[in-house]
């Protein structure tokens, strides 16, 4: 930890001399050395110890210039969800958003560690890439440039492909290093604890997404009739997705559901009915990393249009009880944009009580990013029951820990994410949704989820014994 990255401030990736545009050697992602118009995070050397003082970065209940975020603890112990919005991430037109859902005895610590460290690693890889580009003398490009003629279209297409390739590599490498760091962390046991991650970067009209696990991103967009519709941006990476199940089985892991929750596929060790992980990809969970559970993210790129209104990132506590369409309706009809995330979480909480009154509500975390960059006035914000103090305090019920994870150890008896086999009968059924526009081939026919009772990510901790076969 504590690795630093130094980046430059906002850039236009061009300078004018005698009326001519001269492209400096840059990638068009905020690293050009131009005259500074506004001091942002990118002007500073970044380390995890400096994160709390960085401007335009929020991770507790509140709002930013373009978004609002909110999380609420469920009824199973400490809140294991984490979230972040980081504006001016590379330059003034780049925003990073993420939601992380922890599980296992130390899941809350894993989720917060990933929330803090993953964006910095992403910056680090982009900075390294820019250093290599500068060394090779390659020129910059803009990811959302206009196409004017055939020749320019070909150049712009090549630039677009290159920008996409840069972000893909950065996402893949940062996720890989993040998981490697968790494995070797001296103060955080991730053997049977882990976290999902749904992360997006908006750069101008480009949207880049990397994700693992079953948190989800959707978009509210207007159709040809100017009606609001829901567009699913990511796929819930469940163990029974055909491509996921095939990989797990090749690695000797097992995928099956328990009798009392036949529609909840889980990942099991080859030699023990544990831990029963309810997702196919995650940070941590090293007891299963040799048996098919991976931390390699799915990556996708999308060009935004004027029809696209907002993006919602949320943990599965929201999607377990609300459909994509319901979420879009709730956010689009919120009295103020600043209140949208909180109203969505409140709606999910009500649905848990109405549909499953005897079940333990899951933690919920929501990020609402408005694509036109507009937010309510401060007076509207305060009318919704927020105050400036929300930006300085965590309303999620999370305990505060240091960057290296040092804090009082969580009590297993209070952490209901891991449950014993005797508790299984108290839980109900889950229908799995893996429906998304970017699903390919065999995944596209899967249906959406109607709702669930409380389903835990893990069933029980592995029980290693002398009977373990040599594999």
Automatic annotation (TrEMBL):
Residues 146-158 have a biased composition (Basic and acidic residues). Pfam families: PP2C (PF00481). It catalyses: O-phospho-L-seryl-[protein] + H2O = L-seryl-[protein] + phosphate; O-phospho-L-threonyl-[protein] + H2O = L-threonyl-[protein] + phosphate. Residues 132-142, 385-399 have a biased composition (Polar residues). Belongs to the PP2C family. The keyword Metal-binding applies. This is protein-serine/threonine phosphatase. SUPFAM superfamilies: PP2C-like. It comes from the Eukaryota. Residues 1-17 have a biased composition (Low complexity). Keywords: Hydrolase, Magnesium, Manganese, Metal-binding, Protein phosphatase. Its cofactor is Mg(2+); Mn(2+). Its EC number is 3.1.3.16. Residues 66-371 form the PPM-type phosphatase domain. One of its GO terms (molecular function) is metal ion binding. Residues 1-20, 132-158, 381-410 are annotated as: Disordered.
């Amino acid at each position: 930890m504590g690795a630093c990255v130094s980046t430059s401030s906002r850039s236009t990736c061009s300078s004018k001399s005698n009326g001519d545009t001269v492209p400096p050697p840059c990638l068009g992602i905020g690293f050009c050395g131009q005259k500074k118009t506004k001091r942002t995070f990118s002007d500073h050397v970044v380390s995890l110890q400096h994160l709390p003082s960085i401007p335009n970065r929020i991770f507790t209940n509140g709002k930013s210039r373009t978004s609002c975020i909110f999380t609420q603890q469920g009824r199973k112990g400490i809140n294991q969800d984490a979230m972040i919005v980081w504006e001016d991430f590379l330059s003034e037109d780049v925003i990073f958003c993420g939601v992380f859902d922890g599980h296992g005895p130390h899941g809350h610590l894993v989720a917060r560690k990933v929330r803090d460290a993953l964006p910095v690693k992403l910056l680090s890889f982009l900075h390294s890439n820019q250093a290599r580009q500068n060394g090779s003398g390659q020129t910059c490009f803009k990811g959302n440039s206009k196409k004017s003629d055939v020749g320019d279209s070909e150049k712009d297409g090549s630039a677009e492909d290159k920008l996409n390739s840069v972000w893909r590599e950065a996402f893949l490498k940062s996720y890989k290093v993040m998981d490697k760091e968790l494995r070797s962390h001296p103060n955080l046991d991730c053997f049977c604890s882990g976290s999902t991650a749904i992360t997006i970067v908006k750069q101008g009209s480009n949207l880049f997404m990397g994700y693992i696990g079953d948190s989800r991103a959707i978009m509210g967009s207007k159709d040809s009739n100017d009606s609001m519709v829901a567009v699913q941006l990511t796929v819930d990476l469940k163990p029974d997705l055909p491509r996921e199940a095939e990989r797990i089985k090749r690695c000797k892991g097992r995928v099956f559901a328990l009798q009392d929750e036949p529609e909840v596929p889980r990942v099991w060790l080859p030699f023990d009915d544990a831990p029963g992980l309810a997702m196919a990809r995650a940070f941590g969970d090293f007891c299963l990393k040799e048996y098919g559970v991976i931390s390699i993210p799915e990556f996708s790129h999308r060009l935004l249009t004027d029809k696209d209104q907002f993006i919602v990132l949320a943990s599965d506590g929201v999607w377990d009880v609300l459909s994509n369409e319901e979420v879009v309706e709730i956010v689009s009809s919120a009295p103020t944009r600043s209140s949208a995330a909180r109203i969505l979480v409140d709606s999910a909480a009500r649905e848990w009580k109405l549909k499953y009154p005897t079940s333990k509500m899951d933690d919920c975390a929501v990020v609402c990013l408005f694509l036109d960059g507009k937010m309510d006035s401060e007076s509207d914000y305060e009318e919704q029951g927020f105050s400036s103090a929300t930006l300085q305090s965590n309303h999620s019920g999370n305990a505060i820990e240091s960057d290296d994870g040092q804090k009082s150890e969580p009590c297993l008896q209070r952490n209901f994410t891991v449950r014993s086999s005797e508790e299984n009968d108290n839980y109900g059924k889950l229908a799995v949704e893996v429906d998304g526009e970017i699903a390919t081939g065999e995944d596209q026919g899967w249906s959406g989820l109607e709702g669930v009772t409380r389903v835990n990510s893990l069933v029980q901790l592995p029980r290693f014994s002398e009977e373990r076969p040599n594999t």
